[in-house]
Amino acid sequence: MTLSALDPGTAPYLDLSDPTFSIRSEPVRQARAASWYARTPYGLAVLRYDDVQKLLRHPKLRQGSYLWPQHNDVTGKFATWWMSMLLCQEGDTHARLRRMANPAFSPKLIADLLPKFQALAGRLIDRFAKKGECDFIAEFSEPYATGVICDLLGLPFEKWRELADIAGDMGLALGVTFKRDLPIIEAATEKLFAYAEELVADRRANPSDDFIGMLVKANADKAQLSDQELLDMIVLAIFGGIDTTRNQLGLAMSVFIDHPDQWALLAERPELGKAAVEEVMRVRPTVTWVTRAATETFTYNDLEIPQGTTLHLFSQSAGTDPAVFPDAGFDITAERKAHFGFGGGAHHCLGHFIARGDMTEALKLLARRLRNPRLNGEAQWLPDSGNTGAISLPIAFDPEA
Amino acid sequence: MKVHVDMSICLLHGQCVIAAPEVFSFDDEGQLQWLADVDDGLRADVEAAADACPEQAIRID
Hints:
The structure holds 2 protein chains of 2 kinds.
Chain A: E1 3-4, H1 26-34, E2 37-40, E3 43-46, H2 49-56, E4 61-63, H3 68-71, H4 77-84, H5 91-101, H6 107-126, E5 133-135, H7 136-153, H8 160-171, H9 182-205, H10 211-218, H11 227-257, H12 260-268, H13 273-283, E6 289-294, E7 298-300, E8 303-305, E9 310-314, H14 315-319, H15 352-369, E10 371-375, E11 380-381, E12 390-392, E13 394-398
Parallel strand pairs in A: 1-8, 3-9
Antiparallel strand pairs in A: 2-3, 4-6, 5-13, 6-9, 7-8, 10-13, 11-12
Helix pairs in contact in A: 6-7, 6-15, 7-8, 7-11, 8-9, 8-11, 9-11, 11-15, 12-15, 13-15
Chain B: E1 3-5, H1 15-19, E2 24-26, E3 32-34, H2 43-52, E4 58-60
Antiparallel strand pairs in B: 1-4, 2-3
């Protein structure tokens, strides 16, 4: 029998609009055991690994947040960028933009950046290693995540604070106060475009094979990547790369504080750095769900999903699904199936090689130099849903001699 | 040029289909199809597909 997603039916209900809702709570685990999906105030939540994988790439679904500015009754510079940029495109336009962007994000280009990431991490750790304590977010993950973007763009590290503030102001657009904060968001968007224009002018004058240089090369054929699309792409790379990495590294530290034996193991065996990033993202992804929207009515698993339905694909719940991860304790030496912390399908995170590379280098170095990390006061957290992470994370560790 | 896809790690994201549509495609069942033996004229596209694969499941010989 086919049920409709509009029917109340017997499917579990999860109140995603409750500020205390947690993606890691017992009700989510119970819902996942009972059903592949749950109803929510904003459409469906998809809970199990296999269904998340299939729906991430389902041909009847498109990326789900393209109407966000419209839903908030907002127009302007941010809204125009949002609607035009890669993430909100589908089909041929999306494929063309993605093909143009790929060379700038290729794993080959990242290899050249790893020594810079190591140097950056080392420099930041030097500032607090002897103190035996720090706020991990303010003193490491935020300057590191932004410093990585500076390295990527070829900007001096000293620019990090300004870039972080611009990205933070622009990020207000993703929150519930979007419309109220619009003047701040518009000013930040303008500043970021001015940065992008400066970078492009520089590489046109001094051609290079770095990240911006590769995008400027793709722009040589304006039919493939127009001047506006070039700027939109650079703004996306900066906007998309800062908060996500900052949050994910804070989550990594928090998970390892709960698993000191794993941290000690990583210190001993730095070659596990890459696996450590994957294991953290499996159990504690900052992007706890990604959204899709139905472009037409279709039936999936005997459920009729009407056109326009929003689906929240729960990456966190998929990554801990006992059907796929029966022995799912946090273990950086375990062989695991891939997680969906970078989303998947056509919209799979474009910057994942950079993110994986920079987080691997950071965790390797942190594990070696910060021994016995522990909480040192009360951490402040974003809600445990949507894009999550710590706002502050005071930690103590054995001071470096 | 020979193209191999390790289907034990492929998650069917379709990034190869975007990068090299003349070589990779999805059939009606959503399964990945690809040309195992490809003319060298398409090497740049196939290399772009191998680079773009999030699971790094594509090998070129």
